[in-house]
């Protein structure tokens, strides 16, 4: 039994209560459930009570001495942030390509010339399990220092069994050993390996008949993702890959309409994906189909920023009823960052979202995008004791004072892990 922890007297305690059953849409995205002078009591890793400091101090009057006290006076307290889309497990970096892009080469040109995802694939193939684990472990530490307590992690820098397996095993080991929760996604369909360039359908067959069944059998992933993009996987190939995952119990996710409009949003709704991610070029029809099916739109404005592209239209998606979440897309090619708070600022400045909406997008809606809406993403009795304390007085300042890491204290599973 761990010691109880009592987080006291936050100037704003953002609870986000009431959103556990379904992701929040439209005006619900602005309902933060703020308690002023708010406190939380956590025990055995689980939230036991949430209320004003006065209420909780009275409730636990005869147990105050036994709890670890965390004074949050003058500070903002939120649920631990959730990042629902990362390529956490990879080796190396690609600042050389960054430089090439600044001189006019495009992301796709670099990839088609054997760089991009292929370059990171070579580095990831060459890295040992231990090297990959160490690099990814360090990145998780950085996520945690930015207030993130749960991270989704995709494979996809192998595209052969050996390397995909290595990435998924690293993710599994991180989940076991690192305090941040790591939720695993298989993304063998991240690019078409060059040996299949002339016959991409054969690679689709390998994914469907060999890799997906093996991943599912070993229980190494919960989700199956595909890069549905002109020049990568067609909507038809993507459908086949996602349906195969579903047959093996893997929930569908999709990188959709990132670089060109390709009816990825429509496909996400059709196959019942839990989320469609990127969506820079999604059509209105696709957005409406997502809204109807409750597909979470995971928006990645850091990727648009880094690729010097126009961001997805977050405002329009929210107005049409798409449940919107936000993520870093942390990866070495299109978004080498771990700062979800910076992404939240971009959500406001580049996608027309309000500060309240971006908080929802990086907590409860992000949790729903990875099927964790009942466990994390809000401060409610029975949820995991994952809490982030920011050294600012109110939630608007988190986006307003951008590019600054305001994280003060992080509590994970009811233990102080960053101070
Ligand atoms: O989400 N779009 C495809 N995959 C990643 C980028 C991966 C890379 O460039 O290494 C993304 O942007
Ligand atoms: Fe991605």
From TrEMBL:
Keywords annotated in UniProt: Cytoplasm, Histidine metabolism, Hydrolase, Iron, Metal-binding, Zinc
A GO molecular function held by the record: imidazolonepropionase activity
Function: Catalyzes the hydrolytic cleavage of the carbon-nitrogen bond in imidazolone-5-propanoate to yield N-formimidoyl-L-glutamate. It is the third step in the universal histidine degradation pathway.
Pathways involved: Amino-acid degradation; L-histidine degradation into L-glutamate; N-formimidoyl-L-glutamate from L-histidine: step 3/3
Domain Amidohydrolase-related positions: 76-417
UniProt subcellular location: Cytoplasm
Amino acids binding Zn(2+): 85, 87, 255, 329
Protein's name according to its UniProt entry: Imidazolonepropionase
Organism name: Neobacillus citreus
Gene Ontology CC: cytoplasm
Residues where Fe(3+) binds: 85, 87, 255, 329
EC annotation from Swiss-Prot or TrEMBL: 3.5.2.7
Enzyme class, broadest EC rank: hydrolase
Superkingdom: Bacteria
Binding site for N-formimidoyl-L-glutamate: 157, 331, 333
Catalytic activities: 4-imidazolone-5-propanoate + H2O = N-formimidoyl-L-glutamate
Gene Ontology biological-process annotations: L-histidine catabolic process to glutamate and formamide
Residue numbers binding 4-imidazolone-5-propanoate: 94, 157, 190, 258, 334
Pfam families: Amidohydro_1
Alphabetical list of Gene3D superfamilies matching this protein: Metal-dependent hydrolases, Urease, subunit C, domain 1
HAMAP family assigned: HutI
Cofactors required: Zn(2+); Fe(3+)
Gene of this entry: hutI
